[in-house]
Automatic annotation (TrEMBL):
Reaction catalyzed: (3S)-hydroxyhexadecanedioyl-CoA + NAD(+) = 3-oxohexadecanedioyl-CoA + NADH + H(+); a (3S)-3-hydroxyacyl-CoA + NAD(+) = a 3-oxoacyl-CoA + NADH + H(+); a 4-saturated-(3S)-3-hydroxyacyl-CoA = a (3E)-enoyl-CoA + H2O; (3E,5Z)-octadienoyl-CoA = (2E,5Z)-octadienoyl-CoA
UniProt-listed InterPro entries: 3-OHacyl-CoA_DH_CS, 3-OHacyl-CoA_DH_NAD-bd, 3HC_DH_C, 6-PGluconate_DH-like_C_sf, ClpP/crotonase-like_dom_sf, Enoyl-CoA_hydra/iso, NAD(P)-bd_dom_sf
Record-given protein name: Peroxisomal bifunctional enzyme
Gene name, Swiss-Prot/TrEMBL: ehhadh
Organism field: Oncorhynchus mykiss
Keywords: Fatty acid metabolism, Isomerase, Lipid metabolism, Lyase, Multifunctional enzyme, NAD, Oxidoreductase, Peroxisome
Length: 688
């Protein structure tokens, strides 16, 4: 776990060995303690270099160990012991020095890095603080202001920035270990006191009073106390779970047995996007930023002219934001569908209308060369129906992007019953290349994200009927941590999107009776009536709120909405009651979570991590609550079941409140931790 070697001359080389990122597991820490001792005792050794194997210095403490009791030598005394060594110790940093990895390097007397290395203290993103001396040594090295920026943002910085800040002593384009060895040979014998960061005073700005100096003296103790508090906090557990769930979804598997490790992906270099509305434009930019040549097709001349102006500007802006000198991909615009005949993959992004999409797919299958992958950016339509009109149904998958597609991290890759493993693997890999968190999901109405959103929206509307205002509902959800409550979010996305879907489902529209029960279940016509009043959200300047004008962004309470709600309740004989924020959260969130359990039961998502990653990366679910399924585990499955039973009892005409069978089964077996549900579900499936 830490290999010791004596290099010719008098340098000892300690190599951390814990693939893939040389995390500081108990065994690695033990290895470091032992090898440092060995170097210290060997009279022939005058200096020491610590490096990591396989081009990575160290990714920090082993996050997997946080869930259990800490075994092996603790990190803090280990780093202190390195700092105290009386032979110069240098960290040779390649790849990454993050969290505990950088803290280890700060305990060394010198730091030499490769020019491509990344450094940082990302603990804050895991709900922790740099608790192995990082919060103390870094300010002493580079000053409070710069250190606070790195500690509070958790951002990764380049070697060049680290050199400028004073974290590094040297940056090289050559072999970093050779460079570090040469460096320590040169400095051997020089005094080390000024290199022991924990003993130095903190260079404070002149306006910081002496109190702060005193606080710094107590810093190491305070750091330990605070870290202990954080380690035991629910938020830290949730953030660490979110770190792993983001990685778990990359290891996708389908009910057929196909999975990431047994399915080959094709590497795409030429793609086409059909339809250049908001979504299509974002997808073109996302592909071009990945270095893919894109044929961007729009059959309506006016829309094409607008897009061919807007897309290059978007691309330039985004490339600038990502510090790319020139956007790597080439885009050609066309109004002719025939021009996609040479590409390897097509993403259809036309209006969300099945007959239009079918028409496009029929056309594509006749113009594309055999073997072309055909993908649809639908947000919930049936992929299988689209596949059925093509010559190769196995090559059809859904690629559900989220607006704006070049910014939002989530991609749902939707497989139908006939989608081939190769098609799924290719779409998943393409998503990864675009920097997305790609999640493989089954083909059902709304897929995973929008299917769960339906009961959530439905409850929000019912709460308005019963007496709440849009502000009260939004405030409860925003207090929970969503960046935007459900009504503010609906205004932003446009209220007509859901209205059109409800019309297509025969739930509203001419000839449909205006009752509060439709298709055998409770229905709220409120959102339809808001649309009928011409209020479509931000784009019309009015929706559930009022805005300064069409396109306005600042939501203000609208007296019209309050009068409208009162009139509605009076018409239907509803008596408004005061509704507590707890009930708002339970009704909205538990209905959404319940649908998540149904999705797992139907095998439309492979595991709870998939659902949680979708909600964190695509729907603004607060990361410090891990995701809806993780949250259910934290609240307690028994409690969720009891509250759903309670609300279903009060609203028997709302099927979404009826507790899912899977939830009942999990409670019956003692509410096991979320990390074990996948296995439980698979076992149940085998036995059923
Ligand atoms: C800390 O240090 C606390 C201390 O201050 C105080 C303690 C007292 N541990 O991301 P990838 C796994 S907190 C365990 O796909 P990349 C990861 O799960 C820590 N496992 O690769 C995945 O496993 P699998 C502060 C880790 O090349 C595999 O490695 N450090 C850890 O895209 C590959 O990961 C951080 O927050 C870890 N520390 O990115 C850094 N790191 O193959 C967290 C990774 O089974 N890590 N794994 O799915 C990262 O940001 C990225 O992994 C990194 C590499 C940039 C290093």
């Amino acid at each position: 776990m830490a290999m010791y070697s004596r290099l010719p001359g008098s340098v000892a080389l300690i190599t951390l060995q814990n693939p893939p990122v040389n995390a500081l597991s108990a065994a690695v820490r033990q290895g470091i303690v032992d090898t440092v001792q060995r170097a210290l005792k060997d009279p022939k050794v005058t200096s020491v270099v610590i490096c990591g194997q396989n081009g990575k210095f160290c990714g920090g403490a082993d996050i997997r160990e946080f869930a259990g009791p800490m075994l092996g030598p603790p990190l803090v005394p280990m780093i202190h012991a390195i700092e105290a060594v009386d032979k110069p110790v240098a960290a040779a940093i390649e790849g990454v020095a993050l969290g505990g990895g950088l803290e280890l390097a700060l305990g060394c007397h010198y730091r030499i890095a490769h020019s491509k290395a990344l450094l940082g203290l990302p603990e804050v993103t895991l709900g922790l603080l740099p608790g192995a001396g990082g919060s103390q040594r870094l300010p002493r090295l580079i000053g409070l202001t710069a250190a606070l920026d790195l500690i509070t943002t958790g951002r990764h910085i380049s070697a060049a920035e680290a050199l400028k800040l004073g974290i590094l002593d040297q940056v090289t384009d050559n072999n970093v270990v050779d460079q570090a060895v040469e460096f320590v040979r040169r400095v051997a014998g020089q005094p080390l006191d000024s290199r022991r960061l924990s003993t130095l005073p903190c260079p404070c700005p002149p306006d910081v009073d002496s109190l702060l100096d005193k606080a710094m003296v107590k810093g190491m103790e305070k750091e330990r106390d605070l870290l202990t508090t954080l380690f035991n906090s629910g938020q830290a557990r949730a953030l660490q779970y979110a770190f792993f769930s983001q990685r778990v979804v990359g290891k996708w598997s389908l009910p057929s047995g196909a999975s990431w490790d047994n399915s080959a992906a094709r590497t795409i270099s030429k793609a086409a996007v059909i339809g250049l509305g908001t979504m299509g434009r974002g997808i073109v930019v996302a592909l071009a930023l990945t270095g893919i040549s894109v044929v961007a097709v729009e059959t309506q001349e006016k829309q094409l002219a607008e897009a061919s102006q807007a897309v290059p500007a978007m691309l330039q802006r985004e490339a600038g934001r990502r510090s790319l000198a020139t956007p790597p991909g080439v885009i050609s615009f066309s109004s002719n569908l025939q021009d996609v005949s040479e590409v390897e993959l097509v993403i259809e992004a036309v209006f969300e209308d099945m007959s239009l999409k079918l028409q496009v797919f029929r056309h594509l299958t006749s113009v594309c060369r055999p073997g072309t992958l055909l993908c649809s950016n639908t947000s919930g339509l049936d992929i299988d129906q689209l596949a059925a009109v093509t010559q190769s149904p196995g090559l059809v998958v859904g690629m559900h992007f989220f607006a704006p597609a070049h910014v939002m991290k989530l991609l749902e890759v939707v497989y139908g019953p006939r989608s081939s493993p190769e098609a799924v693997a290719t779409a998943m890999q393409l998503g990864k290349r675009m920097g997305k968190v790609s999640v493989a999901v089954g083909n059902c109405p709304g897929f995973v994200g929008n299917r769960m959103l339906k009961p959530y929206l439905e409850q929000a509307n019912f709460l308005l009927e019963e007496g709440a205002t849009p502000q009260q509902v939004d405030e409860a959800l925003e207090e929970f941590g969503f960046p935007m409550g459900v009504f503010r979010m609906s205004d932003l996305s446009g209220l007509d999107v859901g209205w059109r879907i409800r019309k297509e489902a025969g739930l509203t529209g001419p000839g449909v009776e205006s009752t509060r029960t439709r298709q055998g279940r409770r229905y709220s016509p409120l959102p339809d009536q808001v649309c009928e009043a011409g209020r479509l959200g931000q784009k019309t300047g009015r929706g559930w709120y009022q805005y300064d004008g069409p396109g306005g962004r600042v939501a203000r309470s609208d007296p019209w909405v309050h009068i409208f709600l009162e009139a509605y309740r009076a018409e239907h004989g509803l008596v408004a009651r005061s509704i507590a924020p707890e009930e708002i959260l339970e009704r909205c969130l538990y209905a959404l979570i319940n649908e998540g359990f149904n999705i797992l039961q139907d095998a439309m998502a492979a595991g709870p991590e998939d659902i949680d990653a979708i909600y964190v990366f695509g729907y603004g679910w607060p990361r410090h609550h891990g995701g809806p399924m993780f949250h259910a585990g934290q609240v307690g499955l028994g409690r969720i079941l009891e509250r759903l039973q309670h609300h279903h009892h009060n609203h028997p005409d709302v099927p979404h409140l009826k507790p899912s069978t899977l939830l009942r089964r999990l409670v019956a077996v003692g509410s096991p931790p979320v990390q074990t549900w996948r296995e439980f579900i698979n076992k149940e499936r085998v036995h059923s």
